[in-house]
Each structure stands twice: as C-alpha cells, then as structure tokens.
Design goal:
61% of the residues lie in helices and 5% in strands.
C-alpha cells in the first residue's frame, strides 16, 4: 500500500470517529442515537458492507416515533449527497436498500416520498465520481449503477402498488385491465434492463462490499422474476383478446427482456438462471407474434370487386378500405395503394 493511500485511510478513520463523537454530543438523545447508527454503518472502510448489527440498529429507528424515521432517512441522504467517497456512497445505498427490503413501513414510506417535491432522480447520483485512485474511479460506476437500480426498485413498488418482499401475497388479476397489466410488465422490464447494465468491472465483486451489493440486487431480481411470471402467464391467458397495439407492446417488452439474459447470467454467475422463466418468456412472445401477424394480416386484405358485382372478401377489421385498395407499411408509416386486379370472365 502506498504512503498516500495509508495517509488517506488514516484521515478517513479520524474523520469517521470525529463525526460519531460530534453526533453523540447532541442534546436530543434519540435523534443523536439515530445519526450515530447511520455514521457507524457508512464508514470509509472498504473491506466489508455494514454488518447485520449495524443495519439492525438503523432499522430500529423505524419502530419509534414518527420523527425518528424521517430523521433516519434525512441522515442517510445527507451523508450520501455530501460525501465524495465511493465507499461511503455504496454503503449509504446498501443501507437504503436494506430499508426497502427489510425495513418497517415507516422507514419505507419516508424513503419513497423523499424528496417531498418528488422527482425521478431522487438519489441524484448520475454524475457521481470519486477520482482518488483507479479503484475509486471504478467503484464510482458501481455507485451510479446501484443508485439507478434502487430508484427502479422504488418505481416498481409504485407501479405495482406494494413493496417487493419475499412473502408478498400473490396478485389477483380478475379486476386488472390489459392496459394496467402491460404497464406493470413494462415497469418490471425497465428494472431488469437497468440491472443488466452493470459496470464492466465485474472483478470488483471480489470486494465484500460490492459482492454484498450484487447479492441484494440479485434477491430483488428473483422477486421481479416472480412478478413478471405471474403477469406474463396472465397475458398468455388473454392473448386472444388483446388488440394489435397491446400485442405489439407485450412482444416488445418480452423481446427487451430476452436481450438482457446473457448480461444477467454474467453478472449473477448463473444465480437466478431459472430456465423455466425464460422458456415462458419465449413461448408467450412467439404466441403473441403469431396472433399479432394474423390480426395484421386481416388489415392487409385486398378488397376486390369483380365483374357482375361479384365480390371476393370484405374488409374484415378495417372498414376504411375502398374496393381495390391495400394497406401497407412504407418508410414513412402506413400507406394506402390501389391494387389493379383483373378477374377473368367465366366461359
């Protein structure tokens, strides 16, 4: 280890201890206790993620009065937005992720509504960069990716109307419209796409902190697989009743999902491989393509009016075609052309 790195680590250790001492001097003992728990869970020490006891101490704030959960979320967010250290930022995100996965509702709800004015990029880490050294620079890309993943976790919860948990109740779709169903599938696929865009520096998983991050994301990915499966199975039951636009959206989402498969296998090293899941996605996608092509084929029916007012075919689902016209897809969109056909006379 270089002298500069050694001095930097000593300085970070000193700053961490100073911050804990300063927070503990507050006259508001319960608020002070929450801030101390947050600081101890988000130190500059890279070797490992926050321990189970440190995470449990942070989560305990959600089981107190209404003030402490808000204080806890604000303390983590302040720490996250003020730091220039990739290690501290990853630990803050790791702690927030544990709140979403395992925390009490009081903490989850405070996080979901932060900031109060809303906004898509609530974590605001799109430009985060720690250029202390090469490793810190590589870890910065993991910070940006992890922040986006966590934002998508919160977005999925809003789309579904409930938090992703291991013991979540199975969704009933009897009163859910096809439009709502496709909206939920699209939100879930957005999450999978973001997960698949992990940094190329996968070798950093040898660091316990990064490995812990990937493990938590892998757990969420497993839950999302389950949610997608339920909705795709329901879509398969409805495939004959869906319109062309709905089928096109379903097929597009499933194709996007399949394009993520190889990157996910590399990221999770075959964990959550789940071949039956991908078999379902491929089967329903193909069924959707077949039904969609059949319906679009009716749109392309040529309406022919022959001699003696003999009419072959009608316009099926498209009442806007005149006899002899054909609807086709051109470079600028759908076009109508006149088709000149000769019907031979009998005898």
């Amino acid at each position: 280890m270089s002298l500069r790195k050694t001095l930097t680590n000593l300085l970070h250790t000193f700053n961490d201890k100073t911050a804990v001492i300063a927070a503990s001097l507050s006259l508001k003992r319960r608020v002070s206790s929450v801030r101390v728990h947050v600081l101890r869970a988000t130190t500059h020490r890279l070797a490992a993620p926050p321990s189970e006891s440190q995470i449990a101490a942070v989560l305990s704030a959600g089981r107190s009065s209404y003030l402490l959960p808000r204080t806890c979320i604000e303390a983590i967010m302040d720490r996250l937005h003020r730091t220039q250290s990739a290690t501290v930022a990853l630990k803050c995100l790791f702690t927030l992720h544990n709140i979403v996965s395992e925390g009490p509702l009081t903490l989850k709800d405070n996080l979901s509504h932060y900031p109060s004015r809303g906004g898509h990029n609530a974590l605001n880490l799109a430009t985060f960069r720690d250029d202390t050294d090469v490793q810190s620079l590589e870890l910065s890309s993991w910070v940006r990716w992890y922040a986006n993943v966590l934002e998508h976790v919160l977005t999925v919860s809003r789309v579904l109307g409930y938090y992703l948990t291991n013991n979540g109740a199975e969704r009933k779709f009897s009163g859910v419209s096809s439009v709502e169903l496709l909206c939920e599938i699209r939100g879930l696929v957005d999450f999978v796409e973001q997960v698949s865009h992990a940094p190329e520096s996968l070798h950093l998983q040898r660091i316990d902190l990064v490995y812990g991050v990937v493990r938590l994301v892998c757990d969420d990915y497993g839950r999302v697989q389950r949610e997608i499966s339920l909705r795709v199975e329901e879509s398969e039951r409805r495939v004959g009743d869906l319109g062309v636009d709905e089928l096109r959206e379903l097929v597009r989402c499933l194709k996007r999902l399949e394009e993520c498969r190889e990157r996910l296998v590399v990221l999770f090293v075959n964990r959550k491989k789940n071949d039956s899941f991908w078999d379902l996605i491929g089967r329903v996608k193909n069924e959707g393509v077949v039904v969609m092509e059949e319906m679009e084929g009716k749109w392309l029916t040529v309406v022919v009016k022959g001699r003696n007012d003999l009419t072959e075919s009608t316009r099926f689902t498209n009442p806007f075609l005149e006899p002899g016209e054909i609807l086709y897809s051109g470079p600028t969109g759908w076009r109508v052309a006149t088709c000149q056909l000769t019907v031979p006379s009998l005898g």
